[in-house]
Design a protein that fits this description.
- This protein has 5 domains: about 1-155, Rossmann fold (3-Layer(aba) Sandwich), CATH 3.40.50.2300; about 190-295, PAS domain (Beta-Lactamase, 2-Layer Sandwich), CATH 3.30.450; about 305-360; about 385-545, Histidine kinase-like ATPase, C-terminal domain (Heat Shock Protein 90, 2-Layer Sandwich), CATH 3.30.565; about 560-670, 3-Layer(aba) Sandwich (Rossmann fold).
- The protein is built from 18 helices and 24 strands.
- Helix 10 runs antiparallel to helix 11 (about 350-375).
- The protein starts with a strand and ends with a helix.
């Protein structure tokens, strides 16, 4: 190479290293080359007398262009050893190496020249001035070319390195983009919200998993369909609505529409979706497409409908309960005075017949009232634990008498005990109502299947009792109304519309529920669901099912004084007169009696009191009187629901209004213990 003037950046000298152990050779070379120049640049000759000295010079001068090297110096291999040092250790491939030998006609073998990468060689005795300058010129030209190639190679290596870095960065970027794309797709597909995107040519370019799940159509099935709205929304009005909202989203930049439509999935199921359409714009200006978010609100709508229906049923139930409560007081008076008149008219048969008709009418009104109370859940229901399988099995013969000859009843009861906590009389009433309804639905005959089963619903065992027929079925448009009070499809003289509503009320009372499955001309199935009795034990089950509510054995002794407390004066008067006819000494007070006067009645034997009153209620009155008379006994009466009534004991009995005189007198006998 050549030295460079740092100020002018102009080459100064070509450096030539002459290695020879003969001083005369050095002198001759200096004399011949002193005026030599290549491309206008002279030579800087650096001299070394041995291979080792040459190595030191190579360490100091790394820009030497030409080495004139004697083969044999301090040793026979000194020249070749120095070449190995330059080419292999220093990795210098561009410096030109020319060998000199002192023996004319003897040159290194071809393998040695190739192996050591020697550029030229000559004999000292044959080297003239012209030949030397020619040799130096050729060598410097070779060096210049090799140096240029080295620069090109370095540039190529640099560009190749940059290319590799760029490729690695591109690969890493593509990997990041791919991972980001996968993450975005996973996020889009993990949501349960329908998402699809249309471009300006009305082609679907995105269709997430929720859209596939809700609609039932894969992206591959829908992406090329320009009529996909006609497929999904076969309702003209609703399809028109979505087209209008699309148009509005396209025209209004700030548009963000929310609306609902029905769709039909590929399996024929109707679903309700809440839509949000938004225009996609490029640079906030030109519309490039529309995005659609759809939330499946089908279940929500069903729950809302059920909630509203429940609210309506509760409102009607409260109304029915209030009416029935007042009506019970009236019926208690009517039936009480019927019994009193019946006692006084023992010798007048015609009068007794008239009284009996009044009592029969009152009894029918009482049944209707009880149905209202069952529906409204405002009726006191005494519960016990019983096996639902036993109840169905024991009713089979009675139920068979309710059906025509062309109708059969088949029992399909699961094995084992199915303990439920309810009122067995009410469940029998429910079962009879359902069987009668099935009979009415099969005028041409058929089969009624009564089945039981146990299923785990949300980690809780449920007991199911169902009554299924293959009758006419119930039209879909009225199925939601069948549990409404006074709703009936029967003629006015054949039904009150309280059958299924009574079933509904009874099931709610026992903590259960009732479901309907029906289709026109395919029959109806009413399914009752009960929770498994939580306090069920085998011992308790046997005790409850083998016991009676009342012990009807007569006991000696007789109560003397009875205190009657009732808000309704007519009911109070009727009760007092009845008890007086039975020979009891009867006292009566208003429930708003002041506390200081309660002690006046401390010597009574029995308290007959309304359970719930505006003033002092029944249990509080009994507690105050018990302070003066620890042996006091009580008969609670009520015409409405009582949730906190204490369990029956040997000091109290509870009666529902209306009740007969026989029931009241039996209750008094029960307390004579």
């Amino acid at each position: 190479m050549y030295s460079i003037d740092k100020k002018s950046s102009v080459p100064v000298k070509w450096k030539v290293l002459m290695v020879d152990d003969e001083p005369e050779v050095h002198r001759t070379a200096r004399m011949v080359l002193s005026d030599y120049s290549y491309k206008g640049i002279g030579l800087e000759i650096i001299e070394a007398c041995s291979g080792e000295q040459a190595k030191e010079i190579m360490e100091q001068h790394r820009d030497i262009a030409l080495i004139l090297l004697d083969v044999v110096m301090e040793s026979d291999e000194a020249g070749l050893d120095f070449i190995d040092y330059v080419r292999n250790k220093k990795k210098n491939k561009i410096v030109q190496i020319v060998l000199k030998t002192g023996q004319a006609g003897r040159f290194p073998e071809k393998e040695v020249v190739n192996s050591y990468d020697i550029n030229n060689f000559y004999a000292k005795t044959e080297l003239t001035a012209d030949r030397m300058t020619t040799m130096v010129t050729s060598a410097l030209r070779g060096y210049e070319l090799a140096n240029s190639l080295k620069k090109v190679n370095k540039r190529l290596e640099f560009e190749l390195h940059r290319k590799k870095i760029a490729e690695a960065e591109l690969k890493a970027s593509e990997s990041r983009i791919r991972k980001l794309s996968e993450l975005q797709q996973n996020i889009i597909d993990s949501t349960d919200i329908w998402l699809h995107v249309k471009d300006i040519s009305n082609r679907i370019i995105l269709w997430n998993k929720a859209a596939e799940t809700i609609s039932g159509y894969l992206f591959s099935e829908i992406e090329q369909r320009s009529d996909f709205w006609e497929i999904l929304i076969p309702f003209d009005d609703e399809r028109k609505r979505i087209f209008e909202e699309e148009s509005a989203a396209n025209s209004d930049r700030s548009s963000s529409k929310y609306f609902e439509t029905k769709i039909v999935d590929r399996f024929g199921n109707e679903k309700i979706l809440n839509w949000h359409i938004r225009a996609l714009r490029e640079n906030g200006k030109d519309v490039t497409g529309l995005s659609y978010l759809g939330v499946d609100v089908t279940e929500k709508k069903i729950l809302e409908k059920k909630f509203l229906h429940t609210q309506k049923m509760e409102a009607v139930g409260r109304l029915a309960g209030g009416v029935a409560h007042d009506f019970n007081n009236t019926l208690t008076v009517i039936r009480g005075y019927c019994e009193l008149l019946n006692l006084k008219a023992r010798d007048n048969d015609n009068l007794r017949k008239n009284i009996a008709q009044i009592d029969i009418a009152a009894e029918k009104a009482e049944i209707l009232t009880r149905q209202l109370l069952s529906f409204s859940r405002h009726q006191l229901v005494k519960t016990d634990i019983f096996n639902i399988n036993d109840l169905v099995f024991n009713m089979e013969s009675m139920l068979s008498r309710l059906v025509n000859e062309n109708i059969s009843i088949r029992l399909d009861l699961c094995k084992g005990r199915l303990p439920v906590k309810s009122n067995s009389d009410k469940i029998e009433q429910v079962l009879m109502n359902l069987v009668v309804n099935s009979v009415d639905a099969m005028p041409g005959g058929g089969e009624i299947i009564i089945s039981t089963r146990v299923e785990k619903i949300r980690s809780e065992n449920k007991i199911f009792l169902s009554v299924k027929d293959n009758g006419t079925g119930i039209p879909k448009d009225i199925q939601a109304k069948v549990f409404d009070p006074f709703f009936t499809t029967k003629p006015r003289d054949r039904g009150t519309g309280l059958g299924l509503s009574t079933v509904y009320g009874i099931m709610k009372q026992c903590g259960g529920s009732v479901f309907l499955k029906s289709a026109e001309n395919k029959g109806t199935e009413i399914i009752l669901s009960f929770p498994v009795a939580k306090d069920f034990t085998e011992k308790k089950f046997l005790e409850v099912n083998n016991s009676n509510c009342f012990n009807n054995k007569n006991h000696p002794g007789r109560f003397k004084k009875i205190l009657v407390v009732e808000e309704n004066s007519h009911v109070r008067d009727a009760l007092c007169e009845l008890l007086e006819l039975e020979g009891y000494e009867v006292l009566k007070i208003n429930p708003d009696i002041r506390s200081e006067y309660i002690e006046d009645f401390k010597d009574i034997d029995v308290l007959v009191t309304d359970f719930i009153m505006k003033g002092l209620n029944g249990p509080d009155l009994f507690e105050k009187l018990s302070v003066f008379n620890p042996h006091l006994k009580v008969v609670y009466i009520s015409g409405s629901a009582v949730s906190d009534i204490p369990k029956k004991s040997n000091i109290h009995v509870f009666l529902e209004k209306p009740f007969s005189s026989v029931t009241l007198l039996s209750a008094l006998k029960e307390l004579r213990r």
